Amino acid sequence: MTTTIVSSTPHSLTAGRLLVYGIVLAVGLLLMFAPFLFPDVRAQEVAARICVFIVLVASYDLLIGYTGIVSFAHTMFFGLGAYGTAIALKTMGASFGSIFVGGSLGVVAALVLAVLIGLLSLRVKAIFFAMITLAAASVMMVLASQLSEFTGGEDGMTYTVPRFFSPANTLIEDADGKALRIFGVAANGRLALYYFVFLSSLLLFLTMLRIIASPLGTVLEAIRENEMRAEAIGYRVVAYRTAIFCIAALIAALAGILRAVWLRYTGPDVALSFDIMIDILLMVVIGGMGTMVGAVIGVVIMTLAQFYLKDVMAAGASAVSDVPLLPDLLNPDRWLLWLGVIFILLVYFFPAGIAGTLMGKGGHK
Questions:
Q1: Quick one: pLDDT at residue 29?
Q2: What is the pLDDT of residues 109-139, one digit of tens each?
Q3: Is 253 helix (H, G, I), strand (E, B) or coil?
Q4: What is the third-level CATH fold of 15-358?
Q5: CA-to-CA distance for 91 and 111, rounded, in angstroms?
Q6: Entry pTM
Q7: Which of 67, 159, 203, 302 is most deeply buried (CB count within 10 A of its CB)?
């Protein structure tokens, strides 16, 4: 007989919580209108990447933040979704059917591997499970590089997407037969592609919010806090851990599909690289583990830093060019140094992550 686990701390709307929700709402609105607010190609790439990585990071937070599972295989599931879609678009042609077939195969492969890893490994201690997932991710990286006939090897593969998503496709015509411009932005396939990525990411994120608000989310938090107690009151811990591992793998694979369709390129460096896994970990820690909304904040900060920190440093170096030493310190080539400094400061001043600290969470939740 099981006992319902009830959270002992109600989520009151404190000032910090309201601030976090306000930030997340502002980010959501900026992403919703990004094509009109930031019409250049680079800014739209940043916005689309943020959408996809919010889903990817939030799905990883389901594991590490809400259940206490440390996995290094999350990019493997992300890559399976991306490669399945890419291979299908390359071999079957640029159609929605190709996206569906390839994406479905990638998702099925991710689920099968997640079940196998979960059932075989989740009974072991955390560090050993982490090493098993790291080994699995490394094997997948090697396979993607070696099976060049199918994956394009180290160079990856380029492909075309359905014509509906092509910039040459006119969604709405004006009086002259050209693409209607909405606030200066052409209503073409590129706009449709962005909103395909945005709306799909929003749906996946809302699904994860629903999961953590359900009884399943409460059980996962109980397992994280005290696995033996959860087992003692009747919950099958291994079954729940395997289930959430599979759910996270499924969502990561779906995020991979979105990334592949947006980029029109898939390779080890953008789908399976361990650098992506490091980025995911940093984004979770910066945002706040076990907060879900922290994924939004962490992804935005890291992505903006990766794309624009060099530009800011170049402008700063130019502004202080007459000051000794400072231009050299602000050299854009040293952007990783300053990114590390920013990360250290964020961890020091926000020990539970930005969202976690502002919402008054001492640790995970």
A1: 95
A2: 999 999 988 877 666 666 788 888 888 889 9
A3: helix
A4: ABC transporter involved in vitamin B12 uptake, BtuC (1.10.3470)
A5: 23
A6: 0.90
A7: 67
